[in-house]
Write a structure and sequence with these properties.
The structure is a homodimer of 253-residue chains.
Chain A (H helix, E strand, L loop, with lengths): L4 H13 L13 H12 L10 E6 L2 H22 L3 H6 L10 E7 L16 H19 L3 E5 L4 H7 L7 E9 L9 H4 L12 E3 L8 H7 L32
Antiparallel strand pairs in A: 1-2, 2-4, 3-4
Helix pairs in contact in A: 1-5, 2-5
Chain lengths: 253, 253
Amino acid sequence: MRFDDSAIAAVYRAIFERRDMRHFTPAPVDPATLARLLRAAHHAPSVGFMQPWRFIRITDAALRTEIHSLVEAERRATADALGERQDEFMRLKVEGVRECGELLVVALTDDRERHVFGRRTLPEMDLASAACAIQNMWLAARAEGLGMGWVSLFDVGALRTLLGMPAGAKPIAVLCIGHVDAFYAKPMLEEERWATRMPIDACLFENGWDAPATQAADHAASGGTSPGSSPSPGVSAADGLSDSTPAATPPGR
Amino acid sequence: MRFDDSAIAAVYRAIFERRDMRHFTPAPVDPATLARLLRAAHHAPSVGFMQPWRFIRITDAALRTEIHSLVEAERRATADALGERQDEFMRLKVEGVRECGELLVVALTDDRERHVFGRRTLPEMDLASAACAIQNMWLAARAEGLGMGWVSLFDVGALRTLLGMPAGAKPIAVLCIGHVDAFYAKPMLEEERWATRMPIDACLFENGWDAPATQAADHAASGGTSPGSSPSPGVSAADGLSDSTPAATPPGR
């Protein structure tokens, strides 16, 4: 049931080298590759097996331009809302809607209320399922050598109207997918010093909020490779695994 | 930048063979393995790089029992809410909280309002980020031969109180992680005929809601392997890739 070491390393490599891309080359995406990414998405877990995700492929150039306009309007609104970080934000490249080879809009379908299993107290689990589907695509795309970016800068109602969605449906992502010159060595917002990666032990508690975790945190902070741990090639580096970290590269590459 | 064929196959294998597990053996999880799963989670994408996820490891047996009681109460409330499918639901095994080797609670942290980037119109993108982190763990666990299940059957306020979370934090998942006798060949809710997998072309539109997609859907329906597509070992089977499908097994296994 356990994958062999090289297969385990490949899964971790996709996880650590995946990036939220905003820089693309305009080369087209092979339709068969796109289909594989969509199948990967469709095999995500979903609460009560409800499969709430819908994917709208944008092939109409005028429609892509209109989507870009929506994103650009929200980018400016976000800048205004950011206050003192406004200028810094406006210097960031936050999307590649016009350049990417493939543009998809992901939406939650309408008629979700009838799905109660796993959602009675947490109705937003439909979004969680769709996010898992998008993460599947992201990892598959990275393995296939394609970049992907999740843009959430848009007015929900405007995008719903633009694409003729029913009132109960909700767009949650504009996905830019395409070829890239290079993957960022680190998350672009880390490279651009917008934010830093938290130490992992700041995210780990034990038996209660803010209670420091003991054993697991120690292992996590050391990369999960303390003496006695099972060997797992490609995941032995300390914090900051990235494209440029040799240890993140599986054997043979 | 593209992974080699065997590494691509490993990523797809994790995606297609991952299952939402509810049956576990009580064998303990190696702490180093748990740490690797947590590092995989922490390297998920997050909106504006906000890293909203917090993980509470439950090692106290009494606390685990209390969490199970919360889940059981919500299971019964869900059954009541389901009406005519109540009996069918009550026959399903929906969680492995008491049996699994490791129990984690995942929560969104408090103080999220200050993160505006990518959340001005879609504040729930913090949940989407945390779901991507959980999907990373799920795929890494599958590669490591461990099962994982996401339980969302609980009263949010009661679990928040039980674990001493601040008011702004929100529990989103009880994660059961552990060794399993076998992974389900298909999603358990599909095996148990709770729901069926939708044809993928029912999830794909082009340029507008309900507008049938053309090329990509054809490729997706055929498994993304029509003539001219690049070879991708391990992803050539038609719908229903699973543990029992030889084509889902990478070379050498």
